[in-house]
């Protein structure tokens, strides 16, 4: 690793720590030339995930967009920001863990709906009404009866 202060290529690792979820490794380093210390972070480079929209268009998976959608559905419910972040993390992790890098938006919606159903029924119904595109009150009624 090159020293950011003097560009020397000879540096020593003093300390190594992994993040709680083991996705990032933090290394404290020291330069043998100028003796300054600096920190580096290592993470695995992920292959970008692609979402296939209903109209066939493709776009890069955007975890913030997913988070905003869940946030809107969970307004004035018992769902906390940490719960939403956890759902987004779990969905992204499940997508990354698969064999493919392209996913229909429907699959992502189903993964979110499954988790919301366990956490907060109102947020689940709100999210499902948009995701499943309920056309009339009967569609909503059917979904509510499934919960009861």
TrEMBL record:
<keyword id="KW-0805">Transcription regulation</keyword>
<dbReference type="InterPro" id="IPR055173">
    <property type="entry name" value="NrdR-like_N"/>
</dbReference>
<keyword id="KW-0862">Zinc</keyword>
<feature type="zinc finger region">
    <location>
        <begin position="3"/>
        <end position="34"/>
    </location>
</feature>
<keyword id="KW-0238">DNA-binding</keyword>
<comment type="similarity">
    <text>Belongs to the NrdR family.</text>
</comment>
<dbReference type="InterPro" id="IPR005144">
    <property type="entry name" value="ATP-cone_dom"/>
</dbReference>
<dbReference type="Pfam" id="PF22811">
    <property type="entry name" value="Zn_ribbon_NrdR"/>
</dbReference>
<dbReference type="GO" id="GO:0005524">
    <property type="term" value="F:ATP binding"/>
</dbReference>
<keyword id="KW-0678">Repressor</keyword>
<dbReference type="InterPro" id="IPR042101">
    <property type="entry name" value="SRP54_N_sf"/>
</dbReference>
<keyword id="KW-0067">ATP-binding</keyword>
<dbReference type="GO" id="GO:0008270">
    <property type="term" value="F:zinc ion binding"/>
</dbReference>
<feature type="domain" description="ATP-cone">
    <location>
        <begin position="49"/>
        <end position="139"/>
    </location>
</feature>
<dbReference type="Pfam" id="PF03477">
    <property type="entry name" value="ATP-cone"/>
</dbReference>
<keyword id="KW-0804">Transcription</keyword>
<dbReference type="GO" id="GO:0003677">
    <property type="term" value="F:DNA binding"/>
</dbReference>
<dbReference type="InterPro" id="IPR003796">
    <property type="entry name" value="RNR_NrdR-like"/>
</dbReference>
<protein>
    <recommendedName>
        <fullName>Transcriptional repressor NrdR</fullName>
    </recommendedName>
</protein>
<comment type="function">
    <text>Negatively regulates transcription of bacterial ribonucleotide reductase nrd genes and operons by binding to NrdR-boxes.</text>
</comment>
<keyword id="KW-0863">Zinc-finger</keyword>
<keyword id="KW-0479">Metal-binding</keyword>
<keyword id="KW-0547">Nucleotide-binding</keyword>
<dbReference type="GO" id="GO:0045892">
    <property type="term" value="P:negative regulation of DNA-templated transcription"/>
</dbReference>
């Amino acid at each position: 690793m090159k020293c950011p202060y003097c560009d020397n290529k000879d540096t020593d690792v003093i300390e190594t720590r992994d993040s709680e979820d083991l996705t990032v490794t933090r290394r404290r380093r020291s330069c043998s030339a100028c003796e300054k210390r600096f920190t580096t972070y290592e993470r695995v480079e992920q292959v970008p995930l692609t979402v296939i929209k209903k109209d066939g268009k493709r776009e890069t998976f955007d975890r913030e967009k997913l988070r905003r959608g869940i946030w809107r559905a969970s307004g004035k419910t018992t769902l906390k920001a940490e719960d939403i972040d956890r759902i987004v993390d779990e969905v992204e992790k499940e997508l990354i863990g698969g064999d493919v890098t392209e996913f229909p938006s429907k699959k992502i919606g189903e993964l979110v709906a499954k988790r919301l159903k366990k956490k907060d029924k109102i947020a689940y119904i709100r999210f499902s009404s948009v995701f499943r595109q309920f056309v009339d009150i009967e569609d909503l009624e059917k979904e509510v009866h499934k919960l009861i």
